[in-house]
Design a protein that fits this description.
This protein is mainly beta. 4% of the residues lie in helices and 48% in strands. The chain has one helix at residues 102-106, and strands at 3-7, 10-12, 18-25, 33-39, 46-51, 58-60, 68-72, 78-83, 92-99, 112-115, 119-123. The strands form two sheets. Strands 2, 4, 5, 6, 9, 10 and 11 form a seven-stranded mixed β-sheet that branches. The chain has a four-stranded antiparallel β-sheet with strand order 1-3-8-7, with no helix packed on it. Strand 4 (33-39) and strand 5 (46-51) form a beta hairpin.
């Protein structure tokens, strides 16, 4: 069964950090560009980061550039999103997804081939 599972969400204080993990089963995540997205209540899902299939390129939304970092794990079939200096306006459900192409990855496009179920991130003091 093809599946993506996110983990690592939780409650963090403003300025804190979390590392999210996207784990794949049933297919090789390394064969895909992988993106991270988030959706806050009442808002559209937005792309925040993506890593290309060959790992040579990473992309970030302006809102997270310099604070978030995407990488593939040494353990196969995982992709991480390191989130630092989290802001009070960033609580959301965070999703990972496999991108259809590196071009769509570079555009942080929501036109993806598979979604995970999401992990909740709460930023509050």
């Amino acid at each position: 069964q093809v599946k993506l599972v996110e983990s690592g969400g939780g409650l963090v204080q403003p300025g804190g950090h979390l590392r999210l993990t996207c784990a794949a089963s049933g297919f090789a995540l390394g064969d895909y560009a992988v993106g991270w997205f988030r959706q806050a209540p009442g808002k559209e899902r937005e792309g925040i980061s993506c890593i290309s299939e060959n790992d040579q390129s990473t992309y970030y939304a302006d809102s997270v550039k310099g604070r978030f970092s995407i990488s593939r794990g040494s353990v196969k079939n995982t992709v991480y999103l390191q989130m630092n200096s989290l802001k009070p306006e960033e609580p959301a459900v965070y999703f990972c997804a496999t991108n259809v192409s590196d071009y769509l990855c570079s555009q942080l496009s929501k036109d993806v081939s598979a979604w995970g179920q999401g992990t909740q991130v709460t930023v509050s003091s």
